Amino acid sequence: MKKTLFSLFLLLSVAPMWAQTDTLVASELTDTKPHDGNEVWARVPDAVQMAWGSTDVRYAKMNVPRGRMAKTLRLDAWAGERVMAQAVVWTRHDIVSPRVEATALTCGREVIDAKAVNAGFVGYVMTDELNHNGKSNCGHRPNKADFDSSMVADMVYGPHIDRIPRCTTRPVWVNVWVPALTRAGIYKGKIVLTGDKGEKAEVALEVKVGSRQLPAPKDWAFDLDLWQNPYAVARVMGVKLWSREHFDAMLPVMKMLADAGQKSITASIMHHPWNGQTEDPFCSMIQRTLTVDGQWKYDYTVFDRWVEFMTREVGITGTIDCYTMIPWALQFDYYDQASNTVKFVNARPQDAAYRDYWLPFLRDFARHLRQRGWFERAAISMDERMLEDMQSAIAVIREADADFHITLAGNYHKEIEHELADLSVPYGSPLDRSIIAERRSRGQSTTCYVCCTESFPNTFTFSDPAEGAFIPIHAMVQGYDGLLRWAYNSWTADPMRDTRFRSWPAGDTYIVYPGGRSSMRFDRLVEGIQCCEKVRLLRAELQAKGNRRALKRIDEALKVFGWGGLEHTQMPTGERISRLQRVLNSL
């Protein structure tokens, strides 16, 4: 009964967020950490307070905000770029039904419509900490009490929430997506907070739009791959898997991903490819049947609907990554028609039974993909598998169809790298630039990935928000084509309140929230990708003009993002991002 009521609560509270009141503030978990007492809050003026803070700071809910605060903020942007800001509201008194609204931004007769300025309150979620050994953060965490937990600002609500309790702070996250055809100039407007009892506060916002234009996300060169989990959406939203309601619920979540420049679709072609490690295990999107006369039949209905949805409705038109031929548990399911039961083949990639299971499927899968016009997009994908297993699986794939694309997220192996259309290597194992260049000359992509291993940089809910922007810039500086991270939306049991998980640090399994709600971490990641695109475009322009001085300025600003620069600077992560942005916007 309790589970049913909770599911209903989530369902009601994640319907189109920009058109409703978020009632989750009242359900936020209690922060037991020491905080400012009444004597501190008593010094706050009687009226509600509002000022601009920093996007590098997670402001504590129970503390009066500290640091540099201002009533006016100016952001620099290219046309087509998204720029983020964070205002902070704090109050001695309850504010009932507060709303935050953005005005249009005007520059003479030129206007950036208010619809391009999204302002939403920031929600507080429970997080934990790094592993106690200070090294790898991977490993099970069955007892949450073993790790220090606290409430942190991360999830971006809509513009209307139920309340701001007395003696608390509530950040406001502002995301301005400058229209592509916006003329250069300084555009001015306001972010206005109102309450049910006449409370009002505001801050001034200026956006200085330059003469350059950032392409649409679908045209970005940066190769972003965040793995999607459609099964999590069905569970959290309380809808039937693969129903129209399921696809409708996924649309706002996946559109955010497309708007971040996502290139790949994550498809599971076998049961539990990662051994059910997430709250919502990945099931096979392709059903296998061994008929009574010993023939294999394959049902691609779910796979086709998923790919069609992500391609046509969401707009992600790149690689279809099909996971996996080498799961964690080497166990492969099928429906046996003769016995009317689900059976399993237990086999290693070197075994004859493995080949007997996969070869007929791959041949039929290749036929189906060509029929649908998807063969050139599709790839048989593996992650973190041993060389011997990869070699055996590749042999079966090539026997089935020599033209299949193959991808791997894992360690570099010289023996097989030429076989891989896309290779993603761990952040902590940088690949030699000559290898990346050689692969690029063959039309092969090379990226790096971040997972639970890295203490820095990362996108845990306790990570410095600026680390989200740092990661893609680091990937670019190291010569990679992009970035992979294993979990976009593998939500926890209570994802909008508690980001902790039974394995890995809090926030490792997802970077956005149900209902199309973004996060500070995700928006900062987008910021970093946009920096990469700006660097790419500026370098091409400046090289064509022979402007070596400007190119040197860019290179100097990027030094603190590569491995060599990391070892020789104590510069805070946020300052590295700000410094780079100032250079890019000044050219």
Percentage of residues in helical conformation: 25-40%
CATH hierarchy, class of the domain at 2-213:
Mainly Beta
Query: Which term fits the overall shape?
Result: globular
CATH homologous superfamily of the domain at 2-213 - what is it?
Immunoglobulins
Q: Determine the structural class based on helices, strands and strand pairing.
A: alpha/beta
Terminal Cα span? 60 Å
Strand order of the largest sheet: 14-25-24-23-22-21-18-15
Number of helices: 13
Q: What's the number of extended β-strand segments?
A: 25
Quick check: average pLDDT? 94
The proportion of residues in beta strands is 15-25%
Rg estimate, integer Å: 25 Å
- The name CATH uses for the topology of the domain at 2-213 is Immunoglobulin-like
Catalogue the unreliable spans: 1-19
Structure description:
The model is unreliable at 1-19 (pLDDT under 50). The protein has 587 residues and is of the alpha/beta class. An eight-stranded parallel β-sheet has the order 14-25-24-23-22-21-18-15. A five-stranded antiparallel β-sheet has the order 1-3-11-8-9. A four-stranded mixed β-sheet has the order 2-13-12-5, with no helix packed on it. The radius of gyration is 25 Å and the shape is globular. The protein contains 13 helices and 25 strands. The chain has helices spanning 2-13, 38-41, 230-237, 244-258, 301-314, 352-372, 387-400, 433-441, 466-477, 520-545, 548-558, 563-566, 573-586, and strands spanning 49-52, 72-79, 82-91, 95-96, 99-102, 105-107, 110-112, 117-127, 150-156, 163-164, 168-177, 185-194, 200-213, 223-226, 265-268, 287-290, 296-299, 320-323, 331-336, 341-346, 378-383, 405-409, 422-426, 445-450, 482-485. Among the domains are: 2-213, Immunoglobulin-like, CATH 2.60.40.10; 266-409, no CATH class. The longest helix has 26 residues, at 520-545. Helix 9 links the parallel strand 24 and strand 25.
